[in-house]
Amino acid sequence: MVALNLVNRPNKRRQAPDQVSELTTNRLSIYLRCLHELDANGVQTISSQALAEQFQLNAAQIRKDLAYFGEFGVRGVGYYVKELRRHLRQILGLDRKLRVAIVGAGNLGLALADYPGFRQEGFEIAALFDAAREKIGQHSRGGVPIHDIKELKRIARRERLDISVIAVPAPHAQLVVDQVVAAGIKGILNFSPGALHVPEDVKLKSVDLTVSLESLSFYLAQGEIDG
Amino acid sequence: MVALNLVNRPNKRRQAPDQVSELTTNRLSIYLRCLHELDANGVQTISSQALAEQFQLNAAQIRKDLAYFGEFGVRGVGYYVKELRRHLRQILGLDRKLRVAIVGAGNLGLALADYPGFRQEGFEIAALFDAAREKIGQHSRGGVPIHDIKELKRIARRERLDISVIAVPAPHAQLVVDQVVAAGIKGILNFSPGALHVPEDVKLKSVDLTVSLESLSFYLAQGEIDG
């Protein structure tokens, strides 16, 4: 497999990261999840067509997305499942442990701290932070310690935190984001509604759970009209 | 404004719902959120260009997305904020109350039951369900009652539930989905990892929180390589 590694190695520089849309990276994540499932089922190679059919994806889109990063397919064979999975993990930066802190130890923060998908992909939930005295010193069900938000800077350095998840009520979100930025954390995943501001060297991604519910509402409304 | 209403009314039949991608409906939700903010700030009209600039969107994309559903822009004026908001709410099926049940009263289910964004857009979180005896009869912090999952069918009918949110551990998810389908609920928002199966007349949307974290990981990895 050495030759294959040389031929198929990902080319991270082929495209500047700003030109790769979040929709593309989201799809890479989904492909990775599919490859996990194929590998668990003992599948060794798969064509883009078969991959698309099995997981209700678009074969042309798969080929186009992967072509951004290198030549992974082998003519007449398709993709080697384990190989492609390794490459996708590398492209997504998952070939190293990323250390995550969650700010806000309410229901959402505690749910995220123990969310199985995070651990599975190599994220390490290292710490929870909260301001409520009665929570500090406690742990999530999965054993993540809850620290005082005042300790954020010190613990971010000690624990080498890469990413902070924001799970606090909207009125506190910007203040918390400012503290996270001041602590030197460069990646933020935000669950609070409303616009937040970060410096240019910090990557902020917001998850709005309402959008998902509204998309469902759209399809239900259409069904009633047309059906 | 009567004339405007006649000219600009949404045309839900212009495109079959299956041809409108989830990415489009997701963007409509985001536009709606922007219009709320503009309206709250007293803005009465806005061009697609200004809307795009203010919220870091794409003006051509906005025009294209809206054109699927009708003629909302007025030459030389742009969009009337309140009008467009009303139309978007109608297109997304938010002009009626949608009644939501959450199955799973763990941290995630409880967090979702009290998630402020859901209520804001007119979703009514009517019930939580769980199988754990000690949770049944309790309430979320926001006052949503927790029922026995065995009561799902009866309560779904009584409460006229439209949507069910699945917030149970992955090994139980398919069983719960089957119960939701048997209770006659046609819209499912799933937070459990793994593939789930539903009949054709049920719309299932899955939210994978890991995808968001991985997208962030991608940008952090690229930053380290290029920077």
Write up what this structure looks like.
The structure is a homodimer of 227-residue chains. Chain A has ten helices and eight strands. The longest helix of chain A has 19 residues, at 22-40. With 227 residues, chain A is of the alpha/beta class. Chain A folds into two domains: 2-91, Winged helix-like DNA-binding domain superfamily/Winged helix DNA-binding domain (Arc Repressor Mutant, subunit A), CATH 1.10.10; 98-210, Rossmann fold (3-Layer(aba) Sandwich), CATH 3.40.50.720. Chain A is 45% helix and 15% strand. At the A-B interface, helix 2, helix 6, helix 7, strand 7 and helix 10 of A face helix 2, helix 6, helix 7, strand 7 and helix 10 of B.
How much strand of chain A?
5-15%
* The named CATH superfamily of the largest domain in chain A: NAD(P)-binding Rossmann-like Domain
What oligomeric state do the depicted chains represent? Answer: homodimer
Mind summarizing the main beta sheet of chain A?
6 strands, parallel
Gyration radius of chain A (Cα, Å) is 20 Å
Please report the distance between the alpha carbons of the first and last residues of chain A. Answer: 54 Å
Number of helices of chain A: 10
Could you say which overall geometry of chain A the principal axes of the C-alpha atoms support? globular
CATH topology of the largest domain in chain A: Rossmann fold
